[in-house]
Design brief:
This protein is α/β, with parallel strands linked by helices. It is built from eight helices and five strands. It has helices at about 1-10, 50-55, 65-85, 105-115, 155-170, 190-200, 225-230, 245-250, and strands at about 100, 180-185, 205-215, 235-240, 260-265. Helix 2 crosses helix 4 and helix 5 runs parallel beside helix 6 (about 190-200).
Length: about 270
């Protein structure tokens, strides 16, 4: 009995045989390809990629400006989905909000959003810049429902926005807001300096500029883009240009006595 007990105690110090080891976990299947890294920062209602990306793929012939189109997509969607008081039925209503796309190289993203919101038929997207197409490489207000200006040479949109805001004020239309989307490189144009200074000096409180900052400006501005506006009396917000809730909050942060700018920072242009 003693020998049997000793052998049993000795076996207690031996390593457990392989048969008693827990079964290995099954291999994890590879994850499906996910969205681009920037998409993980989109919050709130989120970008409806399943809806917009197929529309964008129908727009061909302007691939060299594809980065510009995608950089504007989140801001455009928040504007048309959550902010702008305009619809396909109110494009001529004097009380509508006005959106001016000065960043004309982002037209493909603009067209996709307009189609998704019912301003233009989706079929128009298949013939961008065709001989009989209404959709050019830059939007034309005479050809496309809901487009407020014909943008071409960069740097003119903010000045046109100032004029539109002044016109509304002169007519006693105090509820509509004017939103102008510009690129950071456009701010190198001198016409924008005049527009910024004049809007601040005259307290154009119905004007909001959105600067899409992808770090493509040649000259920049000491203290950053927002300081270019605040030194002229504007209020300013700087946000992640892919965060929908942040964009929406910033667009609503305008004050009743001065123009407002939202600097939407996205990934640098490659």
């Amino acid at each position: 009995m003693t020998a049997t007990t000793t052998n049993a105690n000795a076996q207690d110090h031996l390593p457990a045989p392989p048969a008693t080891a827990p079964p290995a976990a099954p291999p994890v299947p590879p994850a499906a390809p996910g969205p681009p890294a920037t998409a993980s920062r989109r919050t709130g209602s989120g970008l409806p990629t399943a809806r917009l990306h197929p529309l964008l793929r129908r727009l061909t012939g302007d691939e060299k400006h594809e980065a510009s189109a995608h950089s504007t997509l989140d801001v455009l969607w928040v504007l048309y989905d959550r902010v702008l008081r305009v619809s396909p039925d109110t494009v001529d209503d004097p009380e509508r909000d006005r959106f001016l796309l000065s960043k004309g190289h982002g037209s493909a993203g603009y067209y996709a959003v307009l189609a998704a919101k019912g301003f233009v038929p989706e079929e128009w997207l298949d013939d961008m810049a065709g001989a009989d197409s209404r959709l050019g490489h830059h939007p034309d207000r005479l050809l496309i429902p809901g487009v407020e200006i014909g943008s071409g040479s960069l740097g003119h949109g903010l000045g046109l926005g100032v004029g539109t805001a002044l016109g509304l004020r002169a007519q006693g239309l105090l509820d509509p807001r004017v939103y102008v989307l510009v690129g950071d490189a456009e701010l190198d144009e001198g016409s924008n300096h005049e527009a910024i200074a004049y809007a601040g000096a005259t307290g154009l409180a119905n004007l909001t500029a959105i600067v899409l900052d992808n770090q493509s400006a040649t000259h920049g501005w000491p203290g950053g883009i927002a300081s270019r506006f605040t030194v002229n009396g504007w209020s300013a917000s700087t946000v992640d240009g892919r965060d929908h809730d942040a964009i929406h909050t910033a667009l609503r942060a305008h004050r009743p006595d001065r123009p407002h700018v939202v600097v939407a920072v996205v990934e640098p242009k490659e």
